[in-house]
Amino acid sequence: MKRNRSRNVETRKKIADAIRKADRIAITSHVRPDADSIGSGLALYLILKQLGKEAGFFNSDKAPFPLTELPGFDAIQYGQISPQPFDIVMLIEGGTEERTGMSRLSDYYTVNIDHHASGCYSCNINWVAPEAAAVGEMIYDLAVELDIQWTRDIGFNLYAAISSDTGSFKYSNTTAKSLNIASRLVKKCRFTPVEVSDILFYSNHMEKVRMIEKVLSTLELQLNKRVAIIYFKQEFLARFSLKEIETEDVISIARSILGVDVTLFFKEIGSEFYRVSIRSRGSIDSQEVAKMFNGGGHSHAAGFFYRGDIEEAKRLILDILKEKLK
Known about the structure:
CATH architecture of the largest domain: Alpha-Beta Complex
Radius of gyration: 20 Å
Structural class: alpha/beta
Number of strands: 12
Distance between the termini: 31 Å
CATH topology of the largest domain: inorganic pyrophosphatase (n-terminal core)
Oligomer: single chain
Order of helices and strands: HEHEEEHEEHHHHHEEHEEHEEH
């Protein structure tokens, strides 16, 4: 642990030095961005602007509501970074072209900041810290290293990033450090936790609630009711104006069932193409299961993409879980 902490400090200092020397810095996050990647990216963008850098935040995918309500959201541009000239490209939770949707990243000096154990090490600087509950924690440490002036918008975005990835500080990845950083942000940056919670957790449109109801109607229990499975099908969108549905709150409801150790969420993306999210508790490692399908994530929250028949996918995963639940 001490070796990891020392390596993190050394890498963080290296990133801070690179930022100080650069004039033009681009930021991007992963496809299908979430609150951690958007909140962390916006906070980093605001930090760079404060330091006098010419900064740009580029994403290949648009973030859904309610992330659009985070301060500074309109600064995000959509499209490729290349061929624009930048001294550094900073990748938030997305160290590859596939993960970010950005092409020609090898043309740039790249910095990867990720808290997934499956994070890549193919950039010029790679700061991968699986012990961090969210990249928001890492950007906070970087901001301290850079000795910035704390503003409400920087703090609000970092708090949102950490709060989201810890499930409002309810998930097993929540640590004393998560709570300590959150407390410091509230004290330094003049906002209240409820302001963030109202945006992230209490801003659902009625159509989304109806959609959640539809997804939950697919619920089935397997393996002596220790595995819950829910489905999202593209046909569900036919009666709604929603273009997409965020899954975190849906899967959180299913995973809260007493006695359930693992929750699987099959989200249909295209014909026989699914994004499979895995949530677990106790000794069941979601990441181990996801890796068997070339996915990744965290111990209790992971996922992967699957092409093929959904019943076959379900059978394969349940066979793996049957062994792990013995």
